[in-house]
Amino acid sequence: MSDANQDNPQLYVRNLLMGFVVSRAVQVAAELGLADALADGPKDRDALARDVGAHADTLNRLIRALASFGIFKQLPDGRVANTAQSECLRSDAPGSLRELGRMYGGSPMWQAWTGLEHSVRCGEPAFAQVHGSPVFEYLAQHAESAIRFDNAMAASSRLMNEALVEAYDWSRFGTLVDVAGGIGTTLAAILRANPGVRGVLFDLPHVIERGRDNLAREGLAARCQARTGSFFDAVPSGADAYFMKHIIHDWNDEDCLRILRNCRAAMSDHAKLLVCEKLIPPDDRPSVAKTLDLVMLVMTDGGRERTEQEFQELFARAGMRLARVVLTRVDNCILEVGR
Questions:
Q1: Per-residue pLDDT averaged across 241-246, rounded?
Q2: What is the pLDDT of residues 48-67, one digit of tens each?
Q3: Which of 110, 218, 231, 271 lies 20 to 30 angstroms, CA to CA, from 74?
Q4: pLDDT tens digits for 121-165?
Q5: Selection from 313, 317, 315 nearest residue 338 by Cα
Q6: What distances in angstroms separate CA 227 from CA 203, 222, 234, 258, 271, one per listed residue?
Q7: SS3 breakdown of the chain: % helix, strand, coil, rounded to 5?
Q8: Amino acid 276: pLDDT
Q9: Is there a catalytic annotation at residue 118?
């Protein structure tokens, strides 16, 4: 919500309390595909409602609210147009956020937030309390939700892939294993930019099925193996580097140590582990990592965002050493870790 009322504490807190309304409205706009429907130019509200299968008057109320935050624009002649912000919700936009919105707005994820109080009081994941099973078990059993999740993670990856590729010298490696790499969106970006590198995409069987298809579409099947397995059991050995993006934050410290120790066992003395995560700053400045930490609280069984110091301590417990932190132009960094 707007910060315009910060000088009035009551209005400021009231706006924060209503912030979920804006978030939900953006999610519904993503689900309806409003930005896609406006891709060719402005439309009057009746035509737009027909195109997306909505009620014209109530759709207008949704758009009116979102337009006050810069998402869509109401033109003087009554038509509706995209803005730079709503363009982010187009399916075909570079760095599209539509699938991320659809995931957060999907019933399983949205309903999980009703359990936040339970998480805070008991230290237990809200998702499991609401749905009866941990999030990754749930996804393995619910194909539609798993597809939404995979698509959202791919969209999130595309948002930062260019920054990750340019921030680090990947060309120094012969083989790179993407541990729990999903459908391989980030690995594909690294391989395209570094033609001398070969890849190994490693994830659970139900994920790798879609990963193979994605690598084939990217024209990278000849340069990238797709391997199935669980990082809790073992990680493919013999590579020059191992990469994990937004994996460590999904797990509690003990589970992270199992993952890290399996990576260490697979690594040669000169191999690198590259961990892409957000870092929580040590003061009260605003940070998306602090918001995402609450997402981890609700969705995962002990997952959390961490400070640099917490990462150092975690790696040390796994018998590893944080060598350096590589900043990127987005809100992620690359933690370079050695044995």
A1: 97
A2: 999 999 999 999 999 999 99
A3: 110
A4: 999 999 999 999 999 899 989 999 988 988 888 888 777 899 999
A5: 315
A6: 7, 14, 12, 19, 19
A7: 55, 15, 30
A8: 97
A9: no
Which DSSP category does 168 fall into? S
Q: Which two tokens stand for residue 27?
A: 């999610």
Amino acid at 269: D
DSSP 247: -
Residue 336 contacts residue 323 (beta carbons within 8 Å): yes
- Of the residues 142, 206, 246, 249, only one is catalytic, namely 249
By C-alpha distance, which of 211, 196, 115 is closest to 157?
Answer: 211
Strand ranges for the chain from DSSP E: 43-44, 73-74, 79-81, 175-179, 198-203, 224-228, 241-245, 272-277, 321-327, 333-338
Q: For the residues of 32-52, what is the DSSP string, one character each? A: HTHHHHTTTS-EEHHHHHHHH
Both tokens of residue 84? 């730079």
Helix or strand holding residue 303 (H, E): none
How confident is the model over 276-298, as a mean pLDDT? 95
Buried-exposed string 141-167: b where 16+ CB fall within 10 A, e elsewhere: eeeebbebbbbbbbbbbbbbbbbbbeb
d(CA 175, CA 180): 16
The yes-or-no verdict on residue 94 having pLDDT over 60 is yes
